[in-house]
Class I SAM-dependent methyltransferase
Amino acid sequence: MYIISGKGTVAGVDLATYMLKKCQQRGVLWDNDLPEYTLDFLTQTPSVSKSIRQGKVAEVVSIFNRKLKEAESNHGHYMLLCLTAHQLIPKLNTKLKCINLWDSVAKRIEGNEDRIAFIGTLECLPKDTNRFVTLSSHSEKMGDLITSVKRGYAGLGENYAAHPKRLLKRVFDDYQALGIKKFFLACTDLHLCKQYLHEFGVHEEDIIDILEIAGDAVLARNHQKYEADFLDEVSDARAHFRYKYVDHSDSLHTDTKTDYYLRLLESLCQPASDTVNILDIGGSSTGHSIALAKKFAPCKCHVTLQDISQSSLDAARHLYANLSDISFTFECGDIATFDDGKKYDAVLCLGVLLHVSSDQAFDRVVRKISDLTKSGGIVITRDCLAESERKIYMSFGGVIRNEALYISTFESAGLKLMEQNSFIIEQPIRRKIKSIVWGKR
């Protein structure tokens, strides 16, 4: 897409920054996961607002037409980042398809009859709408606000009399006096003002930001593969990068999770054999396998600690150094390819499977765990579950799975649910932390 920023240098930078952050939130692995677009600042173009006021738009139209002609060989769509410049669209002669931001605005306000504060120049306000409310001395107030932002007066400190936050507060108070609660940031240079509106107590749903509408329009036409396979890849990459360096649990709920795990151990019966082989998948730094081995005392226990993070294994060695009654083996690698030729009496897999994002990979790993477990042995898992039918991706990597599908996957792998307990974490995403003891048929 070819984007003309016009004289909106601030808007162009804010647009690029907004889209980058939005992509990073959704998931970025490589540069080609970002949208492809050309952003042309055209800083020497005459002021569109001033040209419209003076009836001298011919020069601006000529510049736009020349740049659009040059863009036709590499692009299929174009966007005028300035809403005021949208008045010039009928005068433009190009083969490129126009992304009209007013169409997106219309969809955003459709079905809502509330009056909306118009924070932008009068030149960009459509003549055929009465949805937007302007103020007395509107042009002067908006002109000063835009000037304050574009000149960087926000960097002079809020005590500066012409700080954009101070100027916006006066505008905000005027609209509050009129009973207006919704705000339209109609000038793309005023993206900075959104955070000020939040500070004034305006809710996110009551702010329409034209720059974000423009950014979302660009992203919507990006042929990025934001579907399940890509999101699974992003989630796994975040989790793997995190665990490449982690040497201990960084969960805020570690103590609660441990407490519920220890409660679950109380339900376990003593094994029939005098020797017990335990596999601890991804839990080397927690010491949970030590608690399980002590539960099985006086049986002689050997624990294999298998973890994808060498740092976690190295940091865990001191936990097991002085335990003469329990022997240990440390194995670094991916559980999906792990094979030491053994069958285990007990397998621990606590907080690991949530980082296997792909449903197909999850199914394969569960079957691998089942294969590593002796008939009559047990598997203990702990994962994030929910009743939601869809898979929920967590920001730090990992997924929250549907509880019913989670259980059916284990049952299909030959494991039977024997005991369980759970607690709820409310923030940032409500999820059930469920620990389960499975029996191998």
About this structure: Residues 2-220 form a domain with the Rossmann fold fold (CATH 3.40.50.1860).
